[in-house]
Amino acid sequence: MFTIIVAENYEEVSHEASKLMRETLRSKENPVLGLAAGSTPLGLYEEMITDYILGNTSYRKVRTWNLDEYLGVPENDPHSRRSFMNEHLFEKIDIFRENTHIPRGDASDPEEECRRYEEELQKTVIDLQILGIGRDGHIGFNEPGTPFDALTHVTTLTEETRNDNARYFDGNPLLVPEKAITMGPASIMRARNIVIIATGEAKADAVYKMIKGPQKESCPASILQDHSHVTVITDPAAAARI
Ligand code: PGA
Questions:
Q1: pLDDT tens digits along 177-191
Q2: Which of 59, 89, 171, 201 has the fewest CB atoms found within 10 Å of its own CB?
Q3: DSSP letters along 68-104, please?
């Protein structure tokens, strides 16, 4: 079931998400967060950092699990999702680095890395999973056609996704890795609560299909129709079709 919040602008969208984040952090003794790289959650991460700086929130008991990582990209590469998370969140709060989990993009055996990550993930339950959504309805790097029952796996990025992510690779889609490791739709569905954030008119179609469209693997986010606690937070542009 979806709870839908349409906020005035990106700042308000981030603020609404941060309220739910605070609620989770305050109500749990050892909170477990599912996090996403990408531009959409940046405003939320900024609020989380501000909360820490102001002394309102400590992340010392928090554990995090990220959705995905580019295949073949080492952690310390500035283009890795790990570097993105370090720069935009982890280095700016008091979280313990060993409590932050992201698949290893440079693992010598990627299939084994997927198994390892999923196995670790299955030992816990994410209290709050933060998601963005791709224009094609992807969540994590689960592209259209991904089986709903897939767990952490190696995925091939679509041309659209590589184009959308070119901004992190000097604007050149050819530099965006062709493959990634991602938590699967079934891994994501295990979270207790999910917040999915979408802004801008480019996301309007995907938001519509996620909420109102038929539940089909051609729109990976439509699996969320079966989850009991999903909050969709959008600006008016991304909500234009719902
Ligand atoms: P974005 O990516 O937040 O950078 O738009 C969202 C996504 O692809 O899931």
A1: 999 999 999 999 999
A2: 171
A3: EEETT--TTSTTSHHHHHHHHTGGGS---GGGEE---
* Beta sheet of 179-182, edge-to-edge order: 68-70, 179-182, 153-156
Euclidean distance between CA atoms 13 and 232, whole angstroms: 10
- Tell which residue, 155, 161, 163, has the closest CA to residue 179: 155
- For residue 198, report the distance from its CA to the centre of ligand 1, in Å: 8
pLDDT in tens, 211-241: 999 999 999 999 999 999 999 999 999 999 9
Q: What pTM value is reported for the model?
A: 0.97
List the beta bridge partners of residue 154.
181
Question: How high does pLDDT run on average in the chain?
Answer: 98
227 is catalytic: no
What is the CB < 6 Å shell around ligand 1?
38-40, 132-134, 138
The residue behind tokens 């952490």 is 152
